[in-house]
Design a protein that fits this description.
Elements: H1 2-8, H2 14-47, H3 53-59
């Protein structure tokens, strides 16, 4: 039943290609974002819940985002 409905829609074959391009763009962008920040940035962020408030303020003054 669904196959016949989908076959009757003109241009339906374009949507899977658009979805693929969107997902690839997202994941490539995510990889670029993660590589730009570097491992040290994410290790610092992971340690934040374990540090005292004054340690956090002293360690991250002047840090760029």
């Amino acid at each position: 039943m669904y196959k016949e409905v989908l076959r009757s829609i003109e241009g339906i074959g374009v949507y899977p290609s658009i979805a693929l391009v969107m997902f690839l763009t997202f994941f490539i962008g995510l990889i670029i974002y993660l590589n730009r920040h570097g491992r040290e940035y994410f290790q610092d962020i992971a340690r934040l819940p374990l540090e005292d408030e004054k340690d956090v303020n002293n360690n991250h003054k002047g840090a760029h985002s």
